[in-house]
Amino acid sequence: MTSVQVDKQHDGTDGAVGGGEGYQRGLGARQIQMIAIGGAIGTGLFLGAGKAIHKAGPSLILAYAIAGLVIFFIMRALGELLMYRPVSGSFSEYAREFVGPFAGFVTGWTYWLFWVVTGITEVTAAATYMTYWWDIPQWVSALVFTVILYGANLISVKLFGELEFWFSMVKVTAIIGMILICAGILTVGFSDAGDTATVAHLWNQGGFFPNGVGSTLMTLQIVMFAFLAVELVGVTAGESKDPKTVLPKAINTVPWRIAVFYVGALIMILSVVPWTEFQPGVSPFVAAFEKMGLGVGAAIVNFVVLTAALSSCNSGMYSTGRMLRDLSLNGQGPKVFTKLTKSGIPLLGTTFSAALMLVGVWINYVAPGKAFEYVVSFATISGMWAWIMILVCQIRYRTKANRGELPESSFKAPGAPYTSWFALAFILMVIVMMGIDEGARVSLYCAPVWGLLLGVSYLVLKSRNPEGAAFAKRS
Hints:
single chain, 23 helices, 0% strand
């Protein structure tokens, strides 16, 4: 991308505020709000929480609350950057500007990899949910879902936003309904669990930390994985109709959606059904309804969590095509990925990413029982890299803005840079916990390999396209 193009992006003359780069601004306030709300409600909560409850017991509630606060700090840091300059492919754009071209290269490709791996995670979860009704091989379901969602992404961004709106609406309605049912059981006492339901379950079954504080810390990688995708609103900036109004409102919903959908839901579930009744690999929401004797409710919830997994995978396919195109526009990816269809869809980038997601089919074929655990660990470490870069970029941006070198954002992160430093320290602690956890350690082995691959690729890029390798926006 030339310096002229960059200047146009900054003054908004390339089609829209922040640079549409050929995209259609088809995402309205209603859709952005629901994408933001539903983005954090997926496999990590509906399926991963089962393993976390088994490990940590009721203390998992505290883990979600603290991690949720950190996520809010990250999102406000992202919000400050977005209001300074809302662009498509925001994470790699900011990394290029505030850290350097190599950081932008690594961030863009790593976030793309994160969504590919997350897509594998989600189709794995969806295939697991299908076994609730039918005894069919997981890999068959994974293949069918991957193909269907790929087809769904070959549509306009407006229709994508509408689909995600209703996907998110289903998830939100289901969780609120479950909370209300649990509240009714606790107060009125209906269902099989009515006689035993009590908030005392939160401390009577071995205490609030039944397996010790250490076990709670070991669940942090599962907890953080549950929050991955909250930053998706940053990717939608290039296709939002009014990003400077819509995005701050979406980001400010983070505290209450975490309080309701994570902390509130877990308090209700663990009050109605003792934590000792939950098992890894089984959705705690489905298991809770079964323990209550509400078989139809369990089937409905299983459908909802299936929808949630497919929704997240759908968002993944949306993100990967955009990230590949952003990299290509900056000379850091194959030029073929810059092409858009008439409806503004990066067809080749989406197709390439969907093809790689078929690896999930193979994983479900060779190791159906371990598939979810394998991909969760690697998705977590790659997703957290985007969070790290958001925080680093915000710290550097705030320093320059305070010196008058850059215009101040209209949506400043409260407590920054101290909150950003705290969030960085927390993420590093989670990475250390992953290194201690034998099951999650494999992702840390993969990270250096991925880093080496990116380093070699960047050297090749420098030799073939010095302008693309050296380019840093507003350097």
